[in-house]
Amino acid sequence: MENKFSNIRGNTLHMALINVGHLHRRRSSRYFEKLDLSHAQPKILDFLSENDGCIQREIAVHCAREAATMTSILGIMEKSGLIERRPNPKDRRILNVFLTQKGKDIQKNIGETFSQLDKECLEGFSEEEYAQLIDYLERIYNNMNRREQEDA
């Protein structure tokens, strides 16, 4: 029986998502290497630009990373001068994370980079097709996330 989610080339949705994901990561890595950033750091800087002073756990949840992994990434970012971690004034066990001026400057470049990547990805798409694509991807994400929550 033929998979109803196969396209005319025989690719499954699974392979299409993997192929697009790998290529997008490779393209974005080229841009971010020029800014001396690892693949995980742009998402963190982008999140902090909207949530400066948040706690590490919030960043880990947003980026879907384990707490220990996030601690390691933030340590590297702090040594690079992109962020600063300060004890929370109400609970010294908690660290709040802030962008430094260097981090803010680089984050502006990240926004431009994401815009450029979007432009590359969506070349030849109409606004309606773009809206449909986002809708489909959100539905796929929600379906998978619901199953993930059920399995937890």
From TrEMBL:
Organism: Zhenhengia yiwuensis
UniProt keyword list: DNA-binding, Transcription, Transcription regulation
A Pfam entry, by short name: MarR
Domain HTH marR-type: 10-142
Signal peptide: none
Protein known as: MarR family transcriptional regulator
Gene Ontology MF: a single term: DNA binding
Gene3D superfamilies assigned to the protein according to its UniProt record, in alphabetical order: Winged helix-like DNA-binding domain superfamily/Winged helix DNA-binding domain
Keyword Repressor: no
